[in-house]
């Protein structure tokens, strides 16, 4: 079945027309396409995330391997699982696209996500509502502090919605057992090429601190500014790109988001206020969504992990691309705070 036939069938519409490619996916793995559709009770357009992996992939930085190829394929499978089994639980400020259908052309290769063995999709179509049509037509590369707070509100409500006290190992089914794409367990090549440093020596302690926290939620896993779609006056936001959604401490999304959209100077000046904003929104959102959980206990555990999460991401940057602008004085300062906290709590990890 081709894409047009699948859209006709799922949306029960009369006509479908490919309008434009919004962008190609990472390393030639597919594209995001906008389709115009016609029919009673149909939206005017939809977005199709069309995954069609290359037979011989070419990674831009030379880390190409079977391992990274397989992880990429799994990431699309996770995104499909997210839209099919989890996304409907999002509401209020954490807006996400509606999913109209998932067409998977399953290969017979077995790979591991969570809860046992799963199959990876060789080709996959994810039909999504068009966020531009839903009023989220603005894309941003950098943000003011006020605009960044809109996304941080999104994160806090998202984290509150899925917050768990000591979840068992099978949670979250079908998603990554550890969310994000940079955690140590998946980055041994980058770790190996890091020059020796206190951060390198502390990498597994930082990783353990993050992974052994009592309160876990779903982290978006790639919550950079490019994955948020804004309303015209930037007071509302929706998120896309759930390929790395999985279990984790909410601080992982917060540090990555802040690093993606603010200048180093903004970070120095405003990070404490942004942490305050996050926790005040988490408190509000927990009362709405998960009121049996004790906000103060969550806050006590997660606040210090802001620095740990920042240092953990800095570990990835130093191995992956040490000349990257994210390796800056602010990141080094956050890392130093995290490393000091490890020393002062040593023996308690
Ligand atoms: N439902 C949607 N409505 C409107 N725009 C969308 C929608 N989904 C995606 N987009 C736009 O397309 C861009 C790319 O989508 P997405 O982030 O899912 O793919 P990607 O990051 O390129 O995937 P990959 O990491 O595999 O390369 C988004 O940043 C967003 O601007
Ligand atoms: Mg993206």
TrEMBL record:
Stored InterPro entries: CHK_kinase-like, EcKL, Kinase-like_dom_sf
Domain of life: Bacteria
Chain ranges of the CHK kinase-like domain: 126-288
SUPFAM superfamilies given in the database record: Protein kinase-like (PK-like)
Protein name: DUF1679 domain-containing protein
Native species: Shewanella atlantica
């Amino acid at each position: 079945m081709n894409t047009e036939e699948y859209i006709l069938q799922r949306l029960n519409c009369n006509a479908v027309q490919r309008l434009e490619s919004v962008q190609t996916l990472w390393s030639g793995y597919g594209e995001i396409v906008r389709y115009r559709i016609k029919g009673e009770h149909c939206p005017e357009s939809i977005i199709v995330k069309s995954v069609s992996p290359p037979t011989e992939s070419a990674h831009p930085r030379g880390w190409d391997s079977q391992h990274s190829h397989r992880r990429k394929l799994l990431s699309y499978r996770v995104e499909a699982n997210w839209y099919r089994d989890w996304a409907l639980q999002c509401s209020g400020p954490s807006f996400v696209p509606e999913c109209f259908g998932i067409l998977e052309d399953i290969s017979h290769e077995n790979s591991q996500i969570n809860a046992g063995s799963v199959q990876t999709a060789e080709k996959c179509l994810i039909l999504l509502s068009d966020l531009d049509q839903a009023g989220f037509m603005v894309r941003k590369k950098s943000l003011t502090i006020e605009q960044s707070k809109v996304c941080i509100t999104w994160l806090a409500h998202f984290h509150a919605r899925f917050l768990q006290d000591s979840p068992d190992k099978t949670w979250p089914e079908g998603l990554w057992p550890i969310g994000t794409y940079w955690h140590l367990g998946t980055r041994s090549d980058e770790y190996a090429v890091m020059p020796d440093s206190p951060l390198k020596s502390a990498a597994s302690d930082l990783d353990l601190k993050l992974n052994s926290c009592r309160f876990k939620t779903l982290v978006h896993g790639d919550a950079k500014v490019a994955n948020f779609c804004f309303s015209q006056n930037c007071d509302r936001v929706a998120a896309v790109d759930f390929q790395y959604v999985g279990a984790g401490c909410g601080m992982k999304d917060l540090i990555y988001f802040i690093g993606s959209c603010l200048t180093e100077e903004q970070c120095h000046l405003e990070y404490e206020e942004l942490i305050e904003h996050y926790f005040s929104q988490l408190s509000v959102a927990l009362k709405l969504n998960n009121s049996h959980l004790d906000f103060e206990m969550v806050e006590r555990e997660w606040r210090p992990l802001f620095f740990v999460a920042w240092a953990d991401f800095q570990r990835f940057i130093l191995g992956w691309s040490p000349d990257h602008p994210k390796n800056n004085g602010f990141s080094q300062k956050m890392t130093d705070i995290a490393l000091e906290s490890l020393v002062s709590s040593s023996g308690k990890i």
